[in-house]
Amino acid sequence: MKALPLVVVMLLVASPVLGAVGPTDGSSRSPALDGATHAQVESPSNETIHVLDIPSSELVRSTVEAHHVDLGPSLDFSALRAGGRIQTGASLERIESASDDSTRQQLILDELNGIEQRAIALQSAQRSVIERFNDDNLTARELLIELARIDAEARALNERRVALRDVTSRTSDFSISSGRLAALERELDTFTGPVRTHAVAVMTGEADAARFSVRTSETGVVLSVVADGEYVREAYRADLRDRDQRTVTYEEALDIVAENYPTIYSSRTAQNGTNVISAGDSHRVRINYNYGQLTAYVDTGSGRVFKESQTRPLRSISTTATATGVRDGLALTVDRTYPGGPLRIQLNESETGDPVDANVTIGLEASQESTLLGHTGSDGTLWTVSPSAPYTVTVIKGNSAVVLTADPTPTPTLAANPTDTENDTSPTVTSTPTESIESPGPSRTVPQGAPGDSPTVGSPTVG
């Protein structure tokens, strides 16, 4: 499918909201309290913002856990940052103090080879961390710490890559292929993400405690969090890569992203809304749109989106997949969403509609154990990330209590990923997952064309 003209896409998708068409289970379940009110669920809208996710048939583990400042990892991250700066400084000093141009050039190449080798080692490290988590040899907290460490090292290696590029530009009669440097940057991108970055901020005390959703397959991981008024998500699927082939062009990559994310593509901003950087065995497509930002990586061999990060302001998120319970003068509304998606909890007085501030707990229905989420605040609203299995939300205000049991909605998986078209969110899968809740190369800027126009591609620039 070619990137659709704006007017056509807008006819297909009028406005992006969360949710997907599918039946909801309103059957009676064992409530956490006697007399609990069960969900009265409206039919969700078919207009969705698609996400890269793990099909339920390939899901191994899923969990939602709270994380907070942690002295041990905090010291580790500080040491990683300091060590990276020291090593980069030492490398540059050796290069700058080389006795002759030949030695200087060889030192630059040695350093670049070292970064490339370390990138290969990070691939193995990330795969091992996911496998250990799946085998229950790592907790979700430990998994997040290890992924954050890998993220921190990858960022340090990229800073060294940039420093080597700069010192190369100051070296007479010597150059390194910009394609090689850009391919290395794309490879290091594989190990970084905004959720991992926020996890570091939480553990080092730079950000407040937050609840993180973790979902894994044999070789993939999906992370999400609600933080600083935004829903932040990242996903990586190693099974969607084919490193032996390089057949997808950057124009085709843009078409692939347009097909997979029709709502996002149709609402991209007018100026510099879309940027494509092609290097190595992937294309990075970044889209700034009216409701957030998407960064999608398309594999040049498989032609599939294998990595994604999304950031969306909470104020832009809406859904018609609501569940509502009323009791004891309290009206509890849950704007249901897909596993790991942004879940909104709203508490109001049932008669006046005034917002109510009260503590909220959530627990998996199967376990009957609840965890304190926080309180709804003066606006009666609390945001979190959705579990992957049926859950119960409980609110107690004085002598009043309301309990609501609901299901996650089907995941709006990528439109053009053939194996991801299933919308089954059942927790029963082949690998029996566990669910818990606990405390640069060529770069093209593609402007949005006039209605009915195909996107245009700008002149390439080297980053």
TrEMBL record:
Pfam families registered for this protein in UniProt:
DUF7094 (PF23375), DUF7096 (PF23379), Fn3_arc (PF23374)
**Which segments carry the region annotation Disordered?**
23-45, 407-463
InterPro entries found in the cross-reference section: DUF7094, DUF7096, Fn3_arc
In what residue span(s) does the Fibronectin-III type-like domain sit? 322-403
Which residue numbers delimit the DUF7094 domain? 212-317
Bias type Low complexity, positions: 407-443
Q: Which residues form the DUF7096 domain?
A: 2-207
Coiled-coil region: none
Instruction: Indicate what this protein is called per its UniProt record.
Output: Uncharacterized protein
Recorded source organism is Haloferax volcanii (strain ATCC 29605 / DSM 3757 / JCM 8879 / NBRC 14742 / NCIMB 2012 / VKM B-1768 / DS2)
